[in-house]
Task: inverse folding
């Protein structure tokens, strides 16, 4: 494997190899000196054409802890503002001989476009609402650390599945590793064909979370209200927020996850976000280990 | 000038001809069509052994991009591509820049065509000024200078009250309104057909009903007003069912589909190849099967290409930024013949689908009657070749069919007795 464009085309062995490798990097992140020379001399470009705090920072931390040379481009500083096509930008970046390019873009398939024109490894850091593979990997890593396994778990995703790349990558990954994934939300946010991807649909969140091992809620984009997906935040919170009432129906040891950034009081109540079952900040910590593993496997170590 | 085309299988559905015979052409007109051979002295003899000799094909839905987008295509390059595809006549849509909504532009298109290779050009004019959906165009005057129909192709006339007047007024001039049936509000920011594949590929979907709700409105208006309507590029199963229903009620509705809807499904979008981005979007396997059945049983009357050339740099962009559409003139016959080889369509039906446009638009042509213009397409339904976009005479290279192995090729396109295209390979 040369690129990480998505989870869809990975097999179980490849996913497990990434998760096991992440396990071995986890320890580095708890050292006094959090740096190893593994990717010394490698050039990595972080190309974020859509706003990102967590993912961009997480990749950069992972790259620097592996001693790679990293460069950041955002849309406001790139030539795209001056009218250059993305394909031309890609060719120009390629001419500087990078080893990897991390791409975040609002249009599905853009990492594939870059993979066609560039020679370096392309890592998809989120394309439209298609895939966000490293998020799914860090979610799986986090679940596995708490539950010891992924096989046989019931994992419930609540929220805007239609517009979520996190949901898609998680459905691919978790079902490949034997979990049962149930999605819930208003009908305007459940896309056709989601069952063909392996998820079950339960429109009522209370029914959906019964005996769940993991409750994951997705960020609600308030601007989507203008697309008529829901009337307003207050109505959404009343029926679809992750709240104590829902948690009561889940397994006693169920964990609460959110890919961030969270709208507190909309898709998740503060008490759950900050409560004892929340693993939201662990997800962020684990993101660094998982991204180190992906970079190592694509650039430095044995082939995936 | 006397030309003989001999040894070919002559298929002329309108005159109920299907035999191996000879066509004699004198001074650009059909002189006679006979079974067997004709002896005598001729200036030119064309041997059409193992080939089908049919009335020249018409493509009633193309975009030739002139005026305004000559870097994508010109009348000259578009008509060259038409001849190479077996089309003796084409009808360019009015979404040029400026929009083809007045007599001057229609006349200039015809003047440009007169300078080109000889393929006949029958312009379709805008239904409303600037295709803005606000005011009628001068349909009578447009017809007087040579337009053959009206359409705001690219989108429908949104205002139903205005559309009623467009269809009514056009009927006074025996003009048919051609509808690009897509409800723009339902389409929204959609990029591909909504369904399993749009969900899997993470792209905004276009619901199939975006097309059929508009078709229902157009057909209801046609029925109420007692006028004709033509539905362009039908792509979805519910649309086929609706057209079938309205035809059974005696409504004067005709419909076209394209070779690409008969060939591809929305699974092809998984490549994120912008050459799979088309409006209306390519449908599901169920849609494709319904369309194949409908071209066979006659609910779909005609196959047109919606030939939509774009420059390579316009397509080599992020998917959502790419303009919709693909070229079609030079691949249409081979793609349609796939359904002959699969046993769904007879060769007679293939010829009907490629010549019915003359009748729909009340244009002379579409048969080999004695005395009519010698517009003839000669094709080998079994010839195997590989589609190569670099061989296109169109300026457009935007096709998802590059590298497709196909069976069936046009070998000669004759217009007014002159061979405008002869396949060299």
Result:
């Amino acid at each position: 494997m040369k690129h990480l464009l998505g989870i869809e085309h990975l097999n179980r062995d490849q996913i497990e190899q990434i998760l096991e490798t992440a396990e071995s990097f986890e320890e580095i992140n708890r050292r006094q000196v959090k740096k190893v020379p593994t990717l010394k001399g490698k050039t990595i470009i972080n190309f974020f054409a859509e706003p990102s705090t967590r993912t961009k920072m997480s990749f950069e931390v992972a790259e620097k802890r592996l001693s790679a040379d990293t460069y950041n481009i955002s849309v406001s500083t790139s030539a795209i503002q001056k009218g250059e096509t993305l394909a031309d930008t890609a060719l120009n970046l390629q001419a500087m001989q990078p080893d990897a390019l991390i791409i975040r873009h609002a249009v599905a398939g853009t990492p594939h476009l870059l993979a066609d024109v560039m020679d370096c490894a392309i890592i998809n850091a989120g394309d439209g609402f298609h895939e966000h593979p490293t998020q799914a990997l860090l979610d799986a890593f986090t679940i596995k650390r708490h539950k010891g396994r992924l096989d046989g778990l019931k994992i419930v995703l609540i929220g805007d599945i239609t517009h979520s790349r996190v949901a898609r990558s998680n459905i691919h990954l978790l079902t490949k590793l034997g979990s049962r994934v149930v999605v819930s939300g208003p009908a305007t946010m459940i896309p056709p064909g989601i069952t063909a991807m392996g998820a079950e649909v339960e429109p009522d969140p209370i029914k959906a979370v019964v005996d769940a091992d993991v409750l994951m809620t997705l960020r609600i984009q308030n601007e989507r209200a203008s697309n008529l997906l829901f009337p307003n935040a207050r109505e959404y919170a009343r029926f679809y927020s992750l709240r104590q009432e829902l948690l009561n129906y889940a397994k006693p040891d169920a964990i609460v996850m959110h890919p961030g950034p969270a709208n507190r009081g909309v898709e998740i109540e503060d008490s759950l976000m900050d409560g004892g079952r929340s693993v939201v900040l662990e997800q962020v910590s684990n993101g660094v280990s998982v991204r180190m593993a992906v970079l190592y496997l694509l650039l430095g170590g044995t082939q995936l | 000038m006397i030309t003989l085309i001999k040894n070919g299988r002559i298929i002329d559905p309108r005159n109920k001809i299907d035999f191996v015979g000879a066509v004699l052409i004198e001074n650009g007109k059909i002189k006679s069509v006979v079974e067997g051979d004709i002896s005598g002295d001729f200036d030119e003899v064309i041997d059409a052994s193992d080939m089908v000799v049919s009335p020249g094909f018409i493509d009633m839905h193309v975009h030739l991009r002139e005026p305004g987008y000559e870097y994508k295509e010109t009348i000259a390059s578009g008509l060259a591509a038409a001849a190479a595809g077996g089309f003796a006549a084409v009808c360019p849509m009015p979404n040029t820049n400026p929009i083809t909504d007045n007599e001057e532009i229609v006349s200039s298109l015809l003047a440009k065509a007169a300078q080109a290779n000889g393929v006949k050009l029958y312009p379709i004019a805008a239904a409303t000024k600037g295709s803005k959906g606000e005011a009628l165009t001068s349909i009578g005057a447009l017809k007087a200078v040579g337009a053959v129909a009206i359409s705001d192709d690219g989108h429908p006339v949104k205002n139903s009250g205005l559309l009623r007047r467009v269809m009514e007024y056009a009927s006074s001039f025996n003009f048919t309104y051609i509808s690009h049936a897509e409800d723009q509000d339902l389409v929204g920011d959609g990029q591909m057909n909504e369904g399993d594949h749009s969900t899997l590929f993470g792209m905004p979907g276009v619901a199939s009903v975006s097309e059929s709700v508009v078709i229902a409105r157009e057909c209801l208006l046609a029925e109420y007003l007692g006028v004709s309507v033509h539905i362009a590029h039908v792509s979805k199963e519910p649309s086929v069912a609706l057209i079938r229903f309205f035809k059974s009620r005696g409504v004067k509705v005709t419909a076209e589909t394209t070779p690409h809807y008969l060939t591809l499904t929305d699974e092809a979008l998984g490549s994120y190849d912008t050459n799979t981005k088309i409006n209306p979007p390519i449908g599901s396997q169920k849609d494709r099967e319904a369309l194949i059945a409908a071209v066979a049983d006659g609910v779909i009357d005609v196959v047109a290409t919606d030939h939509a050339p774009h420059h390579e740099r316009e397509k080599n962009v992020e998917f959502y930024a790419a303009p919709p559409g693909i070229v079609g003139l030079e691949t249409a016959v081979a793609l349609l013949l796939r359904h002959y080889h699969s046993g769904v369509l007879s060769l007679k039906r293939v010829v009907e689908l490629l010549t019915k446009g003359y009748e729909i638009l009340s244009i002379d042509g579409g048969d080999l009657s004695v005395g009519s213009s010698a517009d003839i397409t000669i094709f080998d339904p079994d010839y195997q070749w590989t589609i190569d976009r670099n061989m296109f005479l169109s300026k457009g290279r935007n096709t998802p069919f590059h590298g497709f192995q196909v069976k069936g090729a046009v070998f000669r396109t004759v217009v007014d007795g002159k061979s405008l295209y002869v396949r060299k390979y």
Q: What stands out?
A: Chain A has two domains: 12-131+284-299, 133-279. Chain A touches chain B through 27 residues (CB under 8 Å). Residues 43 and 96 of chain A are 9 Å apart (CA to CA). The mean pLDDT of chain A is 93.
